[in-house]
Specification:
Blueprint: H1 9-16, H2 33-39, H3 51-62, H4 66-77, H5 84-101, H6 104-115, H7 122-138, H8 142-155, H9 160-172, H10 176-192, H11 199-211, H12 215-228, H13 232-244, H14 253-262, H15 269-281, H16 285-297, H17 307-326, H18 328-337, H19 342-353, H20 357-370, H21 376-389, H22 393-400, H23 409-417
Length: about 425
């Protein structure tokens, strides 16, 4: 939906007011006939014989007798040789009647006439254009709303409300291709200017791309939502898309679980169990223990059809974590003595799970430098995560941006840069 509704015609009319004859200056007697004739079209005057009927019209409007008021106004409108101001004056009075009657079609017609008049100030013309766009939008006449929205934006292209209305009109008229093109351009301008794109714009980008079955663009919209307006729900949608993406490898599943865990999106005990068991297989028993404890704390363990598996898994994770804590130094020594850097990378991340960030980061970096890694991009991903957990977000982003590949590591690395 649009960020803010454009001003309505009726409300605008009330704000501007309807002039009475008493407030309109008469033609100065000192003017010569030639001067008066020359300036006649520009003077804000009406003929004297309109004074009485217009006073009656005003009273009828005040008494909410709109049909008789409109009938009397029609008699004035039928007058011959009306000046430009008299035409404008009639349109404005008729607009007041249309507003009272709730006749938006007539009200829009009157406003269009007033916008075309030289007697409506430029600032008011802009407000009337906005009102025209808003009224047609509320009438669900999106084509007409778009005409006035575009006219407004030609004069004041920086108005955010009208920018959003432009896209909304396209979307509601089922022109999803143009809606998507326009909203992407708006978002690009926001980002280039260092502004956070509005959440509604990003949601519209997502909605339009889904209507077009453009999965890549809808995923981009989700990424921007996670980046600028993160919620648990946006994260879940994005992460499940990733795991279903062609090319995503099971080898990255533990890292997928890490982000799901960090965004509180693990949904049931089976996911907690799989994450803990995967961590144990990776030689990270403390991480497994922490996952099990979170499952109990969150009420996922200790009940349900898999309850018999929960306690044994907890016991296993606790025992392995206790044994592992006793052999950390020996494990580091053995990793450094290995022919490749794989052991150092793995042991380094293990230190990270213990909160020994500097020691873990140094070991991962040494493992990467030593080489011989089958999956160096995964190692860089873990190094970036380690920096993030250590609180060095700038370095984390620097490292994570270097991750390459098409197995899911690139996306996971990029998603970690969105984490606060």
């Amino acid at each position: 939906m649009i960020k803010k509704s454009p001003i309505a015609l009726a409300a605008l009319l009330v704000a501007l007011g309807t002039a009475s004859i008493a407030t309109i200056p008469a033609v100065a007697q000192a003017q010569t006939a030639d001067t008066a004739e020359k300036d006649k079209a520009k003077l804000e005057v009406i003929r004297n014989e309109w004074s009485k009927p217009y006073t009656e019209i005003q009273k009828l409007i005040g008494d909410k007798q709109y049909a008789p008021a409109l009938e009397k106004l029609a008699a004035l409108e039928a007058s011959e040789k009306k000046t430009a101001y008299e035409i404008f004056f009639i349109s404005r009075t008729k607009a007041a009647i249309a507003s009272g009657m709730g006749d938006n079609v007539l009200l829009a017609k009157c406003f269009e006439e007033m916008i075309g008049s030289e007697f409506l100030p430029a600032a008011d013309k802009l407000r009337f254009m906005e009102a025209m766009a808003g009224t047609f939008y509320n009438l669900k006449q999106y084509g007409d709303a778009q005409i006035w929205t575009k006219r407004y934006l030609q004069v004041n292209p920086a108005n955010v409300v009208m920018q959003d209305l432009l896209v909304q009109n396209y979307y509601l008229a089922d022109d999803f291709t143009t809606a998507l093109k326009e909203v992407k351009a708006q978002i690009a301008v926001d980002e280039q200017a260092g502004r956070i794109p509005d959440e509604k714009r990003l949601r519209l980008m997502h909605g339009a791309s889904m209507k077009l079955k453009d999965i890549n663009t809808s995923t981009q919209a989700l990424e921007l939502l996670v980046k600028y307006h993160p919620t648990k729900e946006y994260w879940a949608d994005l992460m499940y898309r990733l795991i279903s993406k062609p090319g995503f490898t099971d080898r990255m599943r533990m890292d997928w679980y890490r982000l799901m865990f960090a965004t509180e999106n693990l949904e049931d005990d089976t996911q907690y169990m799989e994450m803990a068991e995967t961590a144990l297989l990776a030689g990270l028993p403390l991480e497994a223990k922490n996952v099990v404890e979170a499952a109990y704390k969150g009420g996922y363990f200790g009940k349900g059809k898999n309850v018999a598996k929960h306690k044994p898994l907890q016991d296993k994770a606790n025992k392995q974590a206790a044994d592992d804590a006793k052999t950390l130094d020996a494990g580091e020594t053995a990793a450094k003595a290995a022919k490749t850097g794989l052991g150092m990378v793995n042991m380094g991340y293990n230190f990270v799970t213990y909160g020994q960030y500097e020691r873990g980061i140094a070991l991962i970096e040494a493992g990467l430098a030593k080489g011989g890694l089958k999956n160096p991009e995964e190692a860089k991903l873990h190094l970036g995560i380690a920096y993030h957990k250590a609180g060095n977000k700038a370095k984390a982003v620097e490292v994570l941006k270097t991750v390459q590949g098409n197995d899911g590591a690139v996306e996971l690395a990029r998603y970690w840069t969105y984490m606060k």
